[in-house]
Design goal:
Blueprint: H1 7-10, H2 21-28, E1 34-35, H3 47-56, H4 69-79, E2 86-89, H5 92-103, E3 109-114, H6 119-127, E4 130-135, H7 143-148, E5 154-160, H8 172-181, E6 187-191, H9 206-211, E7 218-224, E8 237-240, H10 243-252, H11 260-270, H12 273-296, E9 300-301, E10 308-312, H13 317-326, E11 329-330, E12 332-333, E13 342-346, H14 350-367
Helix pairs in contact: 3-11, 4-11, 5-6, 5-10, 12-14, 13-14
This protein binds pyridoxal-5'-phosphate.
Length: 372
């Protein structure tokens, strides 16, 4: 059909839709499949969030509070910021979209790394902006090359820290040195979707960069309720930024972008330190156990600061992904990310991790993948 679409929209490759679990189970003849493909929380949602959502259902005929007053206040308290420095989104994805809407016009440039989270580039394409993509260096963001790629058309730099899919982390000094080399005309967006899983002593001091921008560019931190809080399906994330940046983002957002149950659920989850700590503890234990078990099987898991692992399996990752599906274990092939012999898996519960390792051992043997 002839449609009046701009070329930069027609050129976008749609996000490949995943199949629902039920469909996969039917197709592969398995039951009780486990999904370790999307870096979700294996311990489920916070029970306090579930209860708070239930209690709100009878008010669904009302519009939500357009300012998300209570949730914004609670997030600000938790982060150590003021409410004017917080912008909530329908997932942190939406805050990425706000940033691109607010700062990127046709022909403006945005720097991202490859491989990293794919949504940054997508929103830039929608805007008709230009993606400048810098390859990772030894699995880490190549900050020197990123700084060298900045021009007077550069508006934003996106850095996911830890990086998805490699799980690597930038240290404090490296980040501070990087900021000092950049012009103040750009905005540095640090996507900290997985920072909850990083020991506080190892995190960069993001609030100091946001609060004290003298001599450095504006910095934005992105956080999410989708990972450590177990609320991926609810769609709540937020950005922490200078109030002047926040004020611009509020201009491009819809008034009711955080729905009624999402506000109630996220607020209750923030208060559920038991669930949060169980997730962090379980993830750390699972990470150590899986790392050992996968290495014993002859795979090479890359060290991870997150709730997932990138693993070199020593053979075609897509074939392994298919073989694992027949065992009822859903992992992600990293072929499309440029790692044809790697899969990415999410750390699960102890039982899920055991099932994954057993299935992996069987599949590696069946496929004849070499030991490393
Ligand atoms: C690096 C990174 N940022 C953001 C997100 C998306 O977060 P949200 O669910 O808050 O939109 C993900 C999800 O996997 C991610 O890996």
């Amino acid at each position: 059909m002839q449609l009046p679409t701009p070329q930069h929209i027609a050129a976008i490759v749609p996000y490949p839709p995943g199949k629902p679990m039920d469909e996969l189970e039917r197709e592969y003849g398995v039951t009780n499949a486990i999904k370790l493909a999307s870096n979700e929380n294996a311990w489920g949602p916070s029970p306090k969030a579930v209860a708070a959502i239930g209690a709100m259902l009878h008010t669904l005929h009302r519009y939500p509070d357009g300012s998300s007053y209570y949730l914004t206040e609670a997030v600000a308290r938790w982060i150590g910021a003021s409410p004017e420095e917080i912008v909530l989104g329908n997932g942190s994805n939406e805050v990425i979209e706000f940033l691109v809407k607010a700062f990127v016009g046709t022909g403006d440039a945005v720097i991202t790394s490859h491989p990293s989270f794919l949504m940054y580039q997508k929103f830039v394409q929608v805007r008709g902006g230009s993606n400048v993509v810098v390859p990772l260096k030894a699995m880490h963001h190549d900050l020197e090359a990123i700084a060298a790629a900045v021009t007077d058309r550069t508006r934003l730099i996106f850095i996911d820290n830890p990086n998805n899919p490699t799980g690597t982390l930038i240290d404090r000094k490296t980040f501070a040195d990087f900021l000092a080399t950049l012009p103040q005309s750009v905005i540095v967006v640090v996507d900290e979707a997985y920072v909850d899983f990083v020991e506080p002593s190892e995190r960069i001091d993001i609030m100091a960069s946001i609060r004290h921008p003298e001599g450095i560019p504006a910095v934005v931190s992105l956080r999410t309720f989708s990972k450590a809080f177990g609320l991926a399906g609810l769609r709540v994330g937020f950005g922490v930024m200078h109030r002047d940046v926040a004020s611009l983002l509020h201009r491009v957002r819809q008034p009711f972008n955080i729905n009624l149950v999402a506000q109630a659920g996220a607020l209750a989850a923030l208060d559920d330190t038991d669930h949060y700590n169980t997730t962090l503890r379980g993830t750390a234990e699972g990470r150590a156990w899986l790392s050992r078990a996968m290495t014993e099987l002859g795979c090479r898991p890359y060290p991870s600061y997150t709730n997932f692992f990138l693993i070199d399996v020593g053979g075609d990752a897509t074939r392994l992904y298919e073989a694992m599906l027949y065992k009822g274990v859903i992992v992600r092939s990293m072929k499309a990310y440029g790692y044809p012999e790697c899969i990415r898996i999410t750390v699960g519960t102890a039982e899920e991790n055991q099932r994954f390792v057993t299935a992996l051992g069987d599949c590696l043997r069946d496929l004849g993948y070499g030991r490393r």
